[in-house]
Design a protein that fits this description.
alpha+beta, Ubiquitin Conjugating Enzyme, 6 helices, RWDD4, RWD domain containing 4, RWD_dom, UBQ-conjugating_enzyme/RWD
């Protein structure tokens, strides 16, 4: 019954994924967010009388420190203990979504800077000179052809690309 409820609730949600009828993944946060993480919940045979298996071992979570993963799992297990005996997968996912900022407050944000910004030439006091973008240069012939096609405003005349059907 909980399986059907999860399928109907998360239908079309790109963050939810059903790995098998007893195993589910949910991504907390946007895919480009450096503080996003993935929770995997698996149901044992005696679920919901026993706690589900919660895992954060997915490759998506490799940037998260193990201390923060353990902290998230500990907080989720407290929620599991409070809901033992009832269907709790949806509750766990929503609890994680609601507390994402609290869970990830100590996670450092890793930003990647491009190599061109980190390399400087000359002395550090002199700012780098920006090169001007070159515009495409047209030859005299190309300019003449362009001018012949356009009117005095630089616009092509109406119907310049129409096909003559009668020919």
């Amino acid at each position: 019954m909980e399986l059907e409820a999860l399928r109907s609730i998360y239908e079309g949600d790109l963050c939810f994924r059903e790995l098998s009828p007893i195993s589910f993944q949910y991504r907390i946060g946007e895919s480009g967010d450096p503080k996003a993480f993935l929770i995997e919940v698996s149901w044992p045979e005696t679920y919901p009388q026993t706690a589900p298996v919660i895992s954060m071992d997915a490759f998506f979570n490799n940037t998260i420190s193990s201390a923060i993963k353990q902290s998230i799992l500990d907080k989720l297990m407290v929620e599991v203990e409070a809901n033992l005996g009832t269907a709790m997968t949806y509750t766990l996912f929503e609890y994680a979504k609601d507390n994402k900022e609290v869970f990830m407050e100590n996670q450092p944000v890793n930003t990647v800077t491009s190599v061109s910004n980190s390399i400087t030439t000359g002395t550090p006091d002199v700012p780098a000179i920006k090169k001007k973008d070159k515009k495409e240069q047209l030859s005299k012939t190309q300019k003449r052809k362009l001018a012949d096609k356009t009117d005095n405003k630089g616009e092509l005349p109406r119907g310049w690309n129409w096909v003559d059907v009668i020919k």
